[in-house]
Amino acid sequence: MSYFSTFLSSLFEDGHVLVPEIEPFSEEELSAGREVLCDFEAQYRLALPGGMPSFDLALSEQAAVLFYRACQFAVLRDTPPQQIDEEFSAMQKLPDTPEAHYAVDLVFRFLPDLFRLSKSMMENDPLVIYLKDWANRWPISSVGLKETVSPVQIDGFAKSPGMLRLYCDRILARNDISRLDDPRVRTLVEASWGMYPELAPNIHTHIQHEVKQHDGSDHDH
């Protein structure tokens, strides 16, 4: 098994990974990585809401390679900024579609863990700047992170019922009040929260407070 495929298997299994020194990928490594991605996605999809986009393996592989490199850069702190720029330039070319958000999220949902790994870095560190950009570019993957810029843009996947449902489920699971600004999200979260308020206490308190404020303003008029 290659380092890359072992990394992906460990990431999917328990989130604990080891990374080697940075070397070019061989086709054998990439092929083994694609196999892990396909096998995992087939099982992962079974637990997701209905109406999810089809799986784009090529996009998921690109995201997995970038995430793998980012983990290496977080551990090997002496990487030249130019090398980081070269490795991460591919991210700018990924489309803003439901298929892309789903494919990227397969690995990028571990982005909060990568932020924790890099928390000792300076704010202006090239890797940290890229991670913040990724957190804003891929909002499903960054739920719970404080490093995102509000309002978060979700137009790339909001028309996919399955992706919007996944996003809202994550917001509830991580009690992320900052994501409630979008009315599309708010409506779905409120509908879910109404059934299980104890599962999202922060959101429960936030919405109750807003309702009381609204009632108060109504009485004032």
Number of strands: 0
Category by helix and strand content: mainly alpha
Q: Any idea what the radius of gyration is?
A: 19 Å
Instruction: State the major sheet.
Output: none
Distance between the termini: 69 Å
The percent range for helix content is: 55-70%
Written as H for each helix and E for each strand, in order along the chain, the element string is: HHHHHHHHHH
Estimated share of beta-strand residues:
under 5%
Structure annotation, total helices = 10
Query: Could you report the average pLDDT, rounded to the nearest whole number?
Result: 87
Unreliable segments of 5+ consecutive residues? none
Shape: globular
Please describe the structure with a list of short key phrases separated by commas or semicolons.
mainly alpha, 221 residues
Description of the structure:
The chain is mainly alpha-helical and 221 residues long. It contains 10 helices and no strands. The mean pLDDT is 87. Helix 1 runs parallel beside helix 2, helix 3 packs parallel to helix 5 and helix 8 packs across helix 9. The radius of gyration is 19 Å and the shape is globular.
Give the helices and strands, then pairings:
Layout: H1 3-14, H2 27-44, H3 57-75, H4 81-88, H5 98-108, H6 111-117, H7 126-137, H8 161-173, H9 183-193, H10 201-220
Helix pairs in contact: 1-2, 2-3, 3-5, 8-9
